[in-house]
Design a protein that fits this description.
The protein is an all-alpha fold and 61 residues long. It has three helices and no strands.
Amino acid sequence: MKKGLSVGLVAFYFWLPLDLIPDVLVLLGVVDDLAVFTFILQLIVKMAPEELQRRYELTAK
């Protein structure tokens, strides 16, 4: 459920015409989008079950 919500938020952010930094400023607009995507991807990884985190060595050492 949480993972689906996170993926939905990423999709909604990219679909939403409003942006934190407009894409007219090409480099800054793309970096802004990548930063939001990376942040939400990190949240998805943190929400993964501990067994999967151990299997794929995703836990902080």
